[in-house]
Amino acid sequence: MMTSAEPLKRLAQIHSEVAALKAEFHAILDRLRGTVESVVASGPAAPKVRTRRGRKRRARAVAPVAAKAPRAGRRRRSPLKGKKRPASPSGPLAPAVVAVLKSSGKPQSVNAVLDGLKKAKYVFTSKDPKKNLAARIYKLSGVKQVGPGLFAAK
Q1: Are 125 and 88 in contact (CB under 8 A)?
Q2: What H or E segment, with its residue span, contains residue 19?
Q3: Nearest of 81, 95, 97 to residue 129 by alpha carbon
């Protein structure tokens, strides 16, 4: 049998602590129920107004159809909207760029490729050929990037 009463005293102490914690838990639970019931009894809250995310819309002024004047800040539309895009008279860009790169035999920059295309009389349909070429050369078939800003034929 047990020789000491210490474990029994400790068990009684733990039992009383558990009882005190249960009482505190029930008191907190009752307070929470009271606040929930008071919120429900007060009636429905005002509906939440949804706010729109993103850019703010500008108010449109209703103007007569005949008096349409160009507005400042209006988006430019492509003159080719709804029409088939014209092909270059000198052919597609990728084979022309590959031909220029093969003729040089060494890696070239966008400026050098553009000069080679102009010497080969390639006709650009864009307003700014350098920007067009610089954007498209990375994905052209038959062209690989061999260094920062340098391209060669595959």
Answers
A1: yes
A2: helix 6-41
A3: 97
90-147 pLDDT per residue, tens: 788 999 999 999 998 899 999 999 999 999 889 888 889 999 999 999 999 999 999 9
Whole-model pTM above 0.70? no
Does a structural domain hold residue 14?
yes
DSSP for residue 137: G
* Helix residue spans in 72-150 (DSSP H): 93-104, 110-119, 129-136
The tally of domains found in the chain comes to 2
CA atoms within 13 A of residue 116's CA, in its CB half-sphere:
21
pLDDT on residue 148: 92
Which residues lie closer than 8 Å to 153 by C-beta, 6 or more apart? Answer: 98, 101, 102, 142, 143, 144
Instruction: Provide the domain limits for residue 31.
Output: 8-39
Residue 72 falls within a domain, yes or no?
A: no
127 within some domain: yes
**pLDDT for position 99:** 93
In a domain, 56, yes or no: no
Tokens of 135: 């954007």
Cβ(111)–Cβ(130) under 8 Å?
yes
Matching residue, tokens 């990037």: 145
